Amino acid sequence: MLFNSVEFAIIFLPVTLVVYFFLNQKRLAIAANAWLLGASIFFYGWWDVRYVALILGSILFNYTIGNLIVDNSSLKKRKLSTKAIFVFGIIVNIGFLGYFKYTDFFIANLNAVCKTSIPLLHIVLPIGISFFTITQIAFLVDCYEGLVEERKLLNYAMFVTFFPHLLAGPILHHKDMMPQFDVTRNKVVNYRNLTLGLFLFLLGLFKKQVIADTLAPLADTGFASANILTLLEAWVTSLSYTLQLYFDFSGYSDMAIGIGLMFNIILPVNFNSPYKAKNIIDFWKRWHITLTNFITTYVYTPLLKSFGKVTFYNSLAAIFLAMIIAGLWHGAGWTFIIWGGMHGAALVVNHLWKKRKLAMNPALAWFVTFMFVNISFVFFRAKNIRGAFDLLAGMAGMHGFTLPMNWAKRFAILSQYGAVFGRVYGNINGHGDVAFMFALLPVVFMMRNSMALADKRSFSLSLKSQCLTVLLILVNLLYLNSIQSKEFLYFDF
Q1: How many C-alpha atoms does 273 have within 13 Å on its Cβ side?
Q2: What pLDDT score does 278 carry?
Q3: pLDDT digits (tens, 9 = 90+) for 50-97
Q4: At what angle do helices 432-446 and 213-224 cross, to 10 degrees?
Q5: For this structure, is 330 an active site residue?
Q6: What average pLDDT does this structure show over 214-234?
Q7: What pTM value is reported for the model?
């Protein structure tokens, strides 16, 4: 079930909210939590009911292992070492994720290297598996380090399956989430939270339907014909995807936070105007913030400790390796590994730059950062390495450039330098959508983001906010379940 579908917005969400608060009003708190858990499982099963058993099995396994780790740690005489239980749990989770996500990637590369012909299994990737698996790996790590206090099965299952974040984040931490399900004041309808949550949901839905899905055809058409794109077409293709990805994923995160607020549950902020960043370190503090926190705590820190001595250069090596892993987490392909490696290398350079206290003009620093991010996303989006280099070649002008036909007489001399006069965006069928894409650039560079607009301290039910909310409702209703409506991009990761 998609957030941008009629059945979710008109039926599922309102019914789930009403029943949840009705049960709480009747002081049936456990029943209310069980209802929310059941609704979340139903939400997940709407995509493919066969995978409900998979996520429930994952929850029961990790809950059991987590309890074994905590209980075993408190025993004086142990039949099994706590570390052995912990390592077993981590291996099973990684194997679980690896089977579904990386088996065909491994077989394809084995066939290429060893000249074998092992058939691919064509395993269907269960939606949200990357998110709910790493969420539970973090839980096991915290159990092992003695940081887990809340261990109710119902609350744990709700924490993992809570439908706003289940399919594409934000990535949650148990200590921030599980206690919220038992807070008494969260059981009562909070009309301010409800209004603010609705506003954020509508804003995120607008980002997804009106902006991201409008940009999608430009990006899809461009990447599908990357080998023939001229200079401007290639740049429009890369920029349209960079903007599509941001509005698609930040839109989902806004909707998730908004829905959480409707239930009086606070989900973490995931984006903070990342395209305003003036260096790549700052970019990763603003982009997919919950993933950055996860990588730092559960990948980078253990890697650094494994090197023995903590030094500046060991930390750089750990950063680079952590970003390679982050790239591979996003997808089973060499393009994702290259993307992760590019960001790892950029972070290393940025830290070296800071250590030497070198300066750069702020405007230039922003431009370099954004151009790097845009170019790196070419690998993130391309189906293969060849496709990525084809688009980069077009961006470098290696496929020539096209100028408007009415410029032919005035600038005929440019034909000697590879210029062709005709339809400037003919290969990507772009006209009005290109103008729309360029109009969005100052929006992401200059305007306040959704979290600032919906800040609890400044948000009020003024005539202005009410009018904006009504406008968002009307526009979103026009686009809801439209032909161009697409799944969220991060469902594939």
Answers
A1: 17
A2: 96
A3: 889 999 999 999 999 999 999 887 776 777 888 999 999 999 999 999
A4: 120
A5: yes
A6: 91
A7: 0.91
Give the C-alpha separation, 408 to 414, whole Å: 9
The upper half-sphere exposure of residue 182, i.e. CA atoms within 13 Å in the direction of its Cβ, equals: 11
Report whether 292 contacts 343 (CB < 8 A): no
Report the residue count for the chain: 493
- Asked, as a colleague might, if the bond just before 170 is cis with ω within 30 of 0, I would say yes
Q: Within its chain, how far is the Cα of 304 from the centroid?
A: 25
357: left (phi over 0), alpha (psi -120 to 50) or beta: left
Indicate the helix (H) or strand (E) that contains 419: strand 419-422
Residue 67 one-letter amino acid: N
Q: Residue 232 corresponds to which amino acid? A: L
The residue-averaged pLDDT of 403-408 equals: 78
* Mean per-residue pLDDT of the chain: 89
Whether 59 and 136 have beta carbons less than 8 Å apart is answered as yes
Which of 124-128, 179-183, 309-313 has maximum average pLDDT? 309-313
Residue given tokens 């009747």 in the structure block: 26
Give the 3-state secondary structure of 471-489: HHHHHHHHHCCCCCCCCCH
CA distance 212 to 233: 18
Q: Which of 330, 343, 351, 399 is catalytic?
A: 330
Which residue has tokens 């965006």? 425
Which of the four pLDDT bands, split at 50, 70 and 90, describes residue 470? confident
